[in-house]
Amino acid sequence: MLSHARAVDSCQTLLRIGVADDAPYFVDEAGQPWTPVGQNDAITWPELAGLLSGHDLQAVERHLGELRASGVTVLRLMLEYCEDGCALLENPAGSFNERVVAAFDELVAMCRAAQLRLLLTPFDTFFTWNNWDAHPYNRANGGPCSGRTRLLTCEATRPFIKRRLEFATRRWGGDGVVFAWDLWNEMHPVQGEDRPDCFESFIGDVGPWLRALEREVHGHAHLQTASVFGPELVWKPWLNEPIFRHPALDFASSHFYEEGTIDFPVDTVAAAVSTGRLVREALAEITDGRPFFDSEHGPIHTFKDHDTTLPEAFDDEYFRHIQWAHLASGGAGGGMRWPNRDPHQLTAGMRRAQRALGGFLPLIDWTTFRRRPLHGAATVDPAAVHLFACGDQSQAVLYLLRSDSIGPDGMLERASWPISPTVALPDMAPGSYRIVAWDTVAGRPCEHSTLYHRGGPLVLRAGRLVADRAIAVRALGPG
Length: 479
Prior knowledge:
- The chain is of the alpha/beta class and 479 residues long.
- It has twelve helices and 20 strands.
- The protein has helices at 49-53, 57-69, 98-114, 125-130, 158-172, 198-218, 231-235, 240-245, 270-285, 300-305, 312-328, 348-360, and strands at 17-19, 26-28, 33-34, 38-40, 74-78, 117-121, 178-182, 223-225, 252-256, 292-297, 336-337, 372-373, 379-381, 385-391, 395-402, 422-428, 431-439, 444-453, 456-461, 468-477.
- The strands form five sheets. It has a six-stranded parallel sheet with strand order 8-7-6-5-4-11, with helices on one face. It has a six-stranded antiparallel sheet with strand order 12-14-15-20-17-18. A three-stranded antiparallel sheet has the order 1-2-3, with no helix packed on it.
- Helix 5 packs parallel to helix 6.
- The model has no long low-confidence stretch (mean pLDDT 96).
């Protein structure tokens, strides 16, 4: 019989993550900014597969250390990945699989040592749905649920879901290695008998229950969210209420799989433009200032339906453009890629892009950054440059991306003649500002300056722009 509890080395714990008091971003218990930089992973995928097999655990440990050195702060994992039967967390229902539990024991310990955190979700809902005939929760297999369309609403199944979360938090939730719980991966009305209130009732029951349990067991509760397949928010707009505004959730998350631009990209610019718009639309739905980020995106239609892995150079640029558009539009971090590659892992170029993003983050004080989207309020000249921007009266994050130099391969032509855009930001407070232009490929400043601003619109030159560039604007103090 597996014990719920697993000892945590009190000399090596991670601080818990919370939401900043005065900004829609995250901080640790010491009040230091913490930004989710990472991607989706699974114990069955190549880089973590050693956890499940028990072979070459040192390779997994080295990999996690390399991730941390690349600026990665968090991995999103499902406690069960049931593409086949090898990684079922329970089998039969209610009986925890010692092999899978041992793999997560190792992962949690290694992440703690590497200073990495985990965003955990209890079920792999995609393969639970597709492989329902073989799933342990199916009543035909001795489980509690009479049908996959009742997973969110079945009264007999709900105690099993809670028992799974209880097992997980008692065993792995003792410190901050668990960043947050995604209560349900890609909630969909069809999983709740298409009842109009199935999201609200599930979140309203499971979320407060888990929070109360964690406070009783640990003296604190981890953050909570619930994710959704992003296009569903367009097809069923009533889902915006529970996803973005449910009072039991601490932050909002969605999965950016827009048709054509993100799920089946033909160039590396359109996906970034869509990402910026999707972030702005999400922020417009949030009324209480909670953080938001995309916790899944990628070329899923290209990979899954067309059985194609994007060329590496193209995919690296697509990845980089998306993450900077996400950050500069007001999302926390750069979004979390689902690999959708063969092999199913991020490329070395994507790791370099994460490192470049991580290097930029200290240029902004995220603990006080009360950003708002500046789309339409901030302007750029020439119009051939896409401007992604968010800011408040003393700070701003900008990302400039050219649209006039897309080559026949769908990538930006880096041999293009440089242009020198001008950006105007609205309503910046008077004072001195540090302006740092950031090379998103090399991951270092390419230009920096200090200027005195008398208040009102702030106009700045963005420097020599060949393809893309990020800019941090931060007040140094009153004049």
